[in-house]
Structures are given as structure tokens and as C-alpha cells.
């Protein structure tokens, strides 16, 4: 499971040598799996409300509490399950600064690495869910009897800080989940559209034709294809920046890349998952009635995609992170650098020949202006009307996603045009890149100016009604 990687990273970054030696190798081998235990019934988006207790006992702690929605919290695929658990020690301060991180193995491990007795942690139930049925989601009870043995990771009260180190990777991975589901939904819809015979071609003939010939089906397929390609391209750019943030030769370069990654993570997570749901839903529409029938398989993508905007922080939480910590706090500095990079692409588009490139440039230019205006508005308004900015947070995340996606499709079109003029590579592939970027410009980038108005003016309606008026 993906969260095993998160648990391994937490141990490698923050764990003591004995903890690393005992757990990491087995987890990397896949002999043992890992979990992340943050959520409790009263503490979901707001982890300041975590209540699980940790009581010190010699070289370890006893853990007491309940965790819910724990992915792979219980299963019999591995010899042991290594739970990473957020809990509070007795004298911890209130809120997020009083949370510590513990390793709590399902089966206790001896000094020689041998497995011993069962720890006092048990799975109370496995949830029945809308989707991801192959991923068990468990309610976990810690310390029903003598208390579950837990080992502190790093220092007390720094648990959430450690979690945040891993958060980028986990949120990025969930963004990829959105992209992967969109790609599967597209492939399945495309296959069906080529085979399903229905209605005559608008340009003539008296026989029914494959539905891929009908403009509205084309529009649906192009929107699936264009958005999936845009999301994937953006994810690759961010993944490359993650590597540069670690390995760039100089310190400034590493810091610059890290700032870009930090800005982009909520966008890759929030936008790619919201769009993944839209694309999976469009995939069902391409199938007509068959899309609604389980055995077709299209419905599963929508059901599976539905969780991606919720776990690892809902879209609302991603958007809050984007406008608050990633933009307002630094006066929009990194966002303005991104706008600069976008304007450089716009300048290249202006020099490129042909109607497609001119149309892409026009839509992209207006979209970048929308981003620029919103960033300035957020920076100015955050301090004096924070609720207004938060009311537009998710629309702003969507705007950023759409425009960052258009930035990448425009770059792809420029490369494709150059390759075509050089007579290099796969002609049909490069032609399709330009046409896909054109579609993206006309159908997606054109939403940007409207979103700008929603963001800047939309708060009036959002908060206008008194609670009793609902
Ligand atoms: C299948 C599944 C697997 C999961 N796996 C794990 C796991 O392995 N480990 C783990 O610890 N957790 C896991 N979770 C929990 C998941 O991370 C939480 O459900 C998620 O963070 C949302 O918390 P919540 O359910 O309490 O919703 P709430 O926090 O109650 O949110 C309800 C609504 O309020 C909104 N909201 C809340 N606060 C704000 C705010 N400040 N601003 C704007 N909007 C806000 C949310 O966006 C949402 O729309 C899993 C959940 C599911 C369903």
C-alpha cells in the first residue's frame, strides 16, 4: 500500500537508529506493511482535536484511543502491520503543537527482530464503502486492555511536523491516483466509442456509425484526453522539481524548486482529483446506459475516484493551504514566479506560426491575466477580509489547475510544432498534441476569466445568509 511508503519515509527521516533497524527493511521488502493513523471520530480535517493518549512507561509508551478510516489497518497479506499513530502525551500542550508520533506494531518485535506477542491493538470493524473495495478501511482500537506498546518517533510534540514532511509525497501520490483513474476511464470510453454503432453521421449516409463520429461524443473524448494529458504533464513537471529540490547543485536552486513544489502540491492533489472525478463521470456518459451498469466497468472508475478528493486532505483543505500558506503568507512570491514562467511561454506562442498557436496564445494570455489578478487580490484581501478569500479558495484552486494545465499543453504544442518543422519523430503524435492544446485552450482555458470573477466577487453570496436562513 502507498501508505507503507509514507511510514517508511517517516521512520527514515525522524526515527531513531533502533527503530529504523527494526522496521524499515521488512517494510521495504514488503514482508510487513505500514499504516498512517491520524483520523479519529472527532478529528478529521482538524488534527488539533486528536485525543488518543500516550503514557510513558520506561523506554516505550502505552497508547490508548480509537482511530477511524485507517487504510490497510487490518489484513492478512503481511506478517506484521506497522502502525504510525498520532497521540498526545500527558503533559502535551493543546492543539497541533501537542501531538507526537508513535510506531505501534500489530505484533511486538523482539530485539533480535523475531515476532513476539500480539500488541494491544485490534481492528473493530472494516468499513463498507462507495469504492476502492480492494483497500480495507479499518476502525482501530488501541489499548483496550493493558495499553498498546508504542515507540516514540523523533521528539515529543513534533508529530504533526513530521507528518507534514511526508504530506507532499502522499498528496502528490493521491493526485496521481486521480490522473490514473482519468486515463483508465478515457481508454475504456474510447474503446466503446469506436465499437458502439448508433445514429447516422451528420455529414450523410443512411447507416448508423460508430458513436466516435458524433461531435458531442468527440467533445467528451477530447475533454477527457486533453485534461488527462494536461494533468499528467503538470504532475511530471512537479515530480522533476521534487528531484531538483533535493539534488540541484546549489542551495538557491534547491530552495527555488522546493518553493515551486510546495505551491504546486495542493494543485496537483486538488485539481487532478476533482478533474479525475469529472473525467470518470464523462466516461460513463460516453457509454450511455451501459455506463450505468456495473459489469461494464466504467462506473467503478467513478466510484474509486470519489475518495481521492477526500483523503489526504479534502479539496477544501488543499485550497486553504494554497491561498494561505502557499500564497498569502509569502505575499504571492512563488506564484508570481510561476506567472513569469507562463508569460515566457506566451511570448514563444506569439512567435509561433499558424491559427492554432494564435488561438492558444489568446486564451492562455487571458487565463494568465486571471491568475495574476487573483493572486494580487488574495495577497491584498487576506489580511482584511479572510472569509472572502476562503469563499473563493476552491474556485481559485480550480483556476490554478486549469491554467497550469494549459501552460503545459501550450509547452507541448510548441515542442510539437518544432519537431514537425524539423521533420522529426511521429508526425501524427505531434499533430495531435497541437490539436489537443487547441481544444484545451478553447474549452478549458476559456473558463479562467469567469473563475476570476467568481473568486473576486463571489464571496457576497457565499456568506450572505444567516445560519437560520438555511
Ligand atoms: C476510504 C478512506 C480511507 C482513509 N484512510 C485514512 C488513513 O489511512 N489514515 C488516516 O488517518 N485517515 C484516513 N482517512 C480519513 C481522511 O483523511 C478524512 O476523512 C479526511 O481528512 C476528512 O476528514 P473528515 O472525514 O473528518 O471530514 P471533516 O473534516 O469533518 O470535513 C467535512 C467537510 O468539511 C470541510 N471542512 C472541514 N474543515 C474545513 C475548513 N477548515 N475549511 C473549509 N472546509 C472545511 C471538508 O472539506 C469537508 O467538505 C480515510 C478516509 C476514507 C474515507
Textual characterization of the structure:
- The chain is 56% helix and 15% strand.
- The protein has 470 residues and is of the alpha+beta class.
- The strands form three sheets. Strands 2-3-10-5-4 form a five-stranded mixed β-barrel. Strands 6-7 form a two-stranded antiparallel sheet.
- Helix 3 runs parallel beside helix 5.
- The chain is globular and about 80 Å long.
- Flavin-adenine dinucleotide binds at residues 3, 35-39, 44-45, 69-71, 129, 137, 307, 310-311, 313-314, 316-317, 320.
Tally of strands: 12
Bound molecules: flavin-adenine dinucleotide
Secondary structure tally, helices: 14
Tell the overall outline. globular
Taking all residues together, what is the mean pLDDT?
A: 97
* SSE pattern, N- to C-terminal: HHEEEEEEEEEEHEEHHHHHHHHHHH
Q: Helix fraction? A: 55-70%
SSE layout and pairing:
Layout lengths: L1 H13 L2 H13 L2 E6 L15 E5 L2 E12 L8 E10 L10 E6 L1 E3 L5 E4 L2 E6 L10 E6 L5 E6 L5 H37 L1 E4 L7 E3 L4 H33 L3 H36 L11 H8 L9 H9 L9 H19 L3 H27 L4 H6 L1 H30 L4 H19 L1 H11 L1 H4 L8
Parallel strand pairs: 1-4, 2-4
Antiparallel strand pairs: 2-3, 3-9, 3-10, 4-5, 5-10, 6-7, 8-9, 11-12
Helix pairs in contact: 1-2, 1-3, 3-4, 3-5, 3-6, 4-5, 4-11, 4-12, 5-6, 5-7, 5-11, 7-11, 8-9, 8-11, 9-11, 9-12, 9-13, 11-12, 11-13
Bound molecules: flavin-adenine dinucleotide (FAD).
Flavin-adenine dinucleotide binds next to β1, β3 and α7.
Features of this protein?
Butyryl-CoA Dehydrogenase, subunit A, domain 3; alpha+beta; 470 residues; binds flavin-adenine dinucleotide; Butyryl-CoA Dehydrogenase, subunit A, domain 2; two-stranded antiparallel ribbon
